[in-house]
Amino acid sequence: MTETSIFPVGIPGQPWSAHELSQWRARQSRQRRYDKDVVPRIDMLADRYEKVAYGQLDYAGETYTLFGLRDRIINPALPTALVTGGVHGYETSGVMGVLEFLERHATAYSGKVNLLAVPCVSPWGYERINRWNYNAIDPNRNFRINGPAQEAVALIEFVRSAQKEFLLHIDLHETTDSDETEFGPALAARDGKAYESCEIPDGFYLVDDSENPQPAFQQAIISAVERVTHIAAPDPHGEIIGSPVVAHGVIEYRLAELALSTSITGARYTTTTEVYPDSPRTTPDECTRAQVTAVCAALNYALAHP
Fold it and tell me: Over the chain, what is the mean pLDDT?
């Protein structure tokens, strides 16, 4: 577990006002470029997929076009799958995992599934390497119609535009040391609460839906990924980040109640991947390969068990 400190914005015990929000924004700086890292790779895929501009963000004069990719020909006889990354923009292998899957592996599923993919749901967060958006809102706790996170609302509307029943949604994430050193303390400070530290798990794990558990599906992904990288072990309490481990490398959340991204499609098979990029036992390339492996394993299982 990593050391934590008092977050430098706000007064302990008092929720943020507009003043503290402005202070927090002043601490954020662009550290990489969505238009240089991500968009050109999406453009390169546009000869194989339909590139869809499904929304636009405007934060203090900085605009970001939200892009998705989907099969050019939708076959109504085939199931539909959604692959997303970058819901939390700082989780790099999620973004890179979607792109690499599309570039190297997606053609293997042509004629088997109608594919929708969104590599970077939160480009402002990607550029600032931040969990939140410009308004200090976590998109992945706000996937609801008319919610406060523009990124989440736009993705919901994009999914609805598909007008298809989804078989699968896999959302690619990371659990990082900065969850403990920065983003957890920031959340507590924003809401005027005391921060309770949490042990960061060393390894890959999955989040299933406690209202629609699919244990065989989750284990098929774990079995594939553990050939690429190590799987997180439970802590001494039998938990991973405060949730009971229900199977090897798997915990469960109430997806709809928490307004998480994997609740928006109503798919039979849903999962959230969690890679630990700060482990001394892994590399950025291995993390991305683990994400790609998870996507392929999820598709393989779902298509074999529709």
Answer: 96
Task: Please provide the DSSP assignment of 261-281 as one string.
Answer: GGGSS--SEEEEEEE-TT-TT
Question: Is the pTM of the predicted complex or chain greater than 0.85?
Answer: yes
What's the pLDDT tens digit per position in 177-191? 999 999 999 999 999
Q: Are 81 and 167 in contact (CB under 8 A)?
A: yes
Q: How far is CA 99 from CA 89, 125, 181, in A?
A: 14, 17, 28
Residue 52 has pLDDT above 90, yes or no: yes
Three-state DSSP at 105 gives coil
According to DSSP, the residues that pair with 253 across neighbouring strands are 209
Annotated catalytic residue, options 127, 174, 252, 274: 274
CA 11 to chain CA centroid, Å, is 30
Q: Which long-range contacts (CB under 8 A, 24 or more apart) does 137-140 make?
A: 138/88, 138/187, 139/87, 139/88, 139/261, 140/87, 140/88, 140/173, 140/260, 140/261
Which domains are delineated in the chain? Answer: 18-304 (3.40.630.10)
Structure tokens at 21: 């929000």
CA 236, 240, 246, 249 dihedral sign is negative
Among this protein's residues, is 274 annotated catalytic? yes
> Amino acid identity, residue 136?
A
